Amino acid sequence: MKRNILFTKMSGAGNDFIVIDNRDGAYSFLGEAEIRQLCTRRIGIGADGLLMLEGSENHDFAMRYYNADGRLGSMCGNGGRCIAQFGWKLGDAAKKELKFEANGNTYFASVLADGEIKLNMLVPKDFRDAFSVDGHECVFVDTGSPHAILYVENLDETHVVEIGQKIRHNQEHFPGGTNVNFVQILSSEKIRVRTFERGVEDETLACGTGAVASALMSYRLGKVSAKSVCVAVQSGDLLTIAFDEEMQHVTLSGPALEVFQGEVSESFWHK
């Protein structure tokens, strides 16, 4: 039976999420159509995705991530940081280290002194150096989600949605689809990124796994030299990607903020 929903709206460097505490299973009725309705801007709450916090036997909690289209998504870095902040506030305030599971993987998160959240990411895989897609030179890496990367001279003049949409749906190179990142190198330790996200099917103000992919590939290609890369995202916020030489230990740090709390009325479902 559909019912009222208590939720928290959160922002991870501009990625916005509906976050729900479902440890008691009360909101398990939410399916693809309902989640899409909640995430639709102007007629719903509006969000890039929905995060469900659920119980776990061996971890502090489990995270289930849904894209704005209502479908289960792969890993979301900024969503992971937001649900870590959310989970921390539900638990022991003195406990600054959290362990949670998502898609069968274990993630570790830390609450930093400035309130930002640091998240340990998966080991990157499937590096692909330069190849051409629809006339654009791309590189690729999977950082928990698949990411194509294009380097540009001027991000402000780049047609992110138009180009991103074509590459995202290129079945020859990306049978399962891909996120598409456009990267401008600012210095040896700073880059700027704009991302077209699959599942949202539009540009978002930030993408955590995309920021990680862009930083790692920029280091791999010698475009930056620092192993702690500052990533400026479209919201104006900054993310920090730190990693070792072999890229086996990767962290994503940045803001994860509660925006507001609310309740969706049962009558919403009768539209």
UniProtKB/TrEMBL annotation:
Keywords: Amino-acid biosynthesis, Cytoplasm, Isomerase, Lysine biosynthesis
Main location (coarse class): cytoplasm
MF annotations from Gene Ontology: diaminopimelate epimerase activity
Record site feature (Could be important to modulate the pK values of the two catalytic cysteine residues), residues: 147, 197
Active site: 76 (proton donor), 207 (proton acceptor)
Task of the protein: Catalyzes the stereoinversion of LL-2,6-diaminopimelate (L,L-DAP) to meso-diaminopimelate (meso-DAP), a precursor of L-lysine and an essential component of the bacterial peptidoglycan.
Name used for this protein in its record: Diaminopimelate epimerase
Gene: dapF
